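Q: Give me a protein?
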Amino acid sequence: MTPVLTDPRLIVGLDLPSIEAARAMVERLGPTISAYKVGLTLLARPGGVAFAHELRAARKMVFQDWKLHDIGAQVEGAARAVAEGGCDLLTVHAEPQVMRAAARGRDAAGTGVKLLAVTVMTSLSDADLGEIGYGFGAGDLVERRVRQALDCGMDGVVSSPLEAARVRELAAAAGRPEFLIVTPGVRPEGAELGDQQRVATPRAALQAGATHLVVARPVVSADNPLLAASAIVESIDGFARS
């Protein structure tokens, strides 16, 4: 029997309306996909966290995308609770107080959870950031937050593929070659952009320095999700970051 081609760098985002739909999608994708992102829509549903734990019990890599953002005590407590419950990757917003609190919570749990700081949402353009009130464009704001994430002991960041090369440079300069760069906004050739503004193809994202790719709609909304996922895996097979 020919072994199933898989790649742990590809994380499929289970952006689906129900736990039942997400569970069915995981079954449909089978061994081709070994890593999943569980976001707020599912985590907020009754049984959502239990579903994330179910995936991990099935030996999938689980990315709980909470994007924690609150006062320090709340973030510390939440990060500790998530880490104690069990996951592989946990997101927090890339603000120094938030990141330091999350690190304290994770460290108190004593688990191997890796913390990812969300730099700038890939749905935001420079014009959007100006409307919010930031005095930086996306590139400059990402750079500032990456430097802060490195200082605060984060294990990596979530950033657009378009900023991945600069993030890799900053991590290397800080002596952190293992620093994770998780890139949403990845779209296979010809895929619709949806609400993403700063996107790249899977190979381009890896070439820029990404360590992991997050792909949701191009897989879970495809007529044949397994075929779509397999095509992405094949497109990056053997392709290492230069």
